[in-house]
Design goal:
With 261 residues, the chain is mainly α. The protein has helices at residues 18-32, 40-50, 52-75, 88-114, 121-151, 156-188, 194-223, 229-237, 248-255. Residues 236-261 have low confidence and may be disordered.
């Protein structure tokens, strides 16, 4: 009596949607790390600890440039060539990298040093108050002054007028968002991640404010018969801020770099 054993072939059948789960897992592992990968987020946090200022400068510069592009796109604010990437983009990148990031790094370092080791509720409230009453006014004043220079202001009275006009509106936004952001950072984030976290918050709020400002400026210019944001920048640079521009001849004089009389 002979027994014949037949070879059994087992086929692996893929579970519907399994490949999608694998792709999602690989993406998440690449971004935040896992058993087999270090992850971009982990690498970024490591750079924050080993090269804090350089990492913050690169982060802030990139976000500032991206903010300008997104705000221009949302507001439909095109350059004279019809593009959303205008001359302000590299200027914003320089501001973010060489002004905003070092200033934020220095001020937050002082804030953290003053309240180091103090974890009581009273200390946390005091930290929020110091941040809103001392650090935020300094940062917002520097921001407004920098924006005035980027817009073309060169005289001190133009920069001062910009800071005076925009200081309280910007501070009101800071007083609403900053306590919430700082309380979240105190509770959930390590101290070396605070500046990038605040940069992201500022990026979201700044993009919205910038886009709304651009929309209002474009509406005002259209009422004057100026159809491009480039004309407004031209008006500022030729020293015409605050003057009436009502006729086509006046606009044509701007086109050839002449000042109104």
């Amino acid at each position: 009596m002979s027994v014949k054993f037949e070879k059994e072939t087992v086929r692996e059948t893929s579970i519907p949607g399994g490949s999608k789960h694998e792709i999602a897992h690989e993406i998440a592992e690449t971004l935040i790390g896992g058993e087999t990968a270090r992850g971009y987020l982990a690498a970024y946090l490591q750079q924050l600890q080993t090269n804090p200022l350089r990492t913050k400068m690169l982060t802030s510069g990139s976000l500032a440039a991206l903010q300008e592009v997104l705000a221009s796109y949302i507001a439909k604010d095109r350059s004279k060539h019809g593009h959303y990437i205008n001359s302000r983009v590299p200027k914003m990148a320089v501001y973010g990298a060489f002004v905003s990031a070092p200033l934020g790094h220095f001020l937050i370092h002082i804030l953290q040093k003053v309240f180091s080791g103090r974890t009581s509720l009273k200390a946390k409230i005091m930290q929020i108050l110091v941040s809103n009453l001392i650090i935020a006014p300094i940062q917002n004043s520097v921001y407004l002054a920098s924006m005035a220079v980027i817009a073309g202001a060169r005289a001190f009275h133009q920069i001062r007028a910009t800071v005076r006009a925009g200081f309280m509106p910007v501070m009101k936004v800071s007083w609403v968002t900053s306590p919430l952001a700082l309380a979240f950072a105190q509770k959930f984030l390590p101290e070396h991640t605070w500046v990038p976290f605040f940069n992201i918050i500022a990026f979201v709020i700044g993009t919205w404010i910038n886009s709304q400002t651009k929309k209002k400026r474009l509406q005002a210019l259209r009422k004057k018969g100026i159809r491009s944001a480039w004309w407004s920048e031209r008006i500022f640079k030729t020293g015409l801020l605050g003057q009436e521009v009502n006729t086509v001849s006046q606009l044509e004089s701007l086109r050839y770099g002449q000042k109104l009389r």
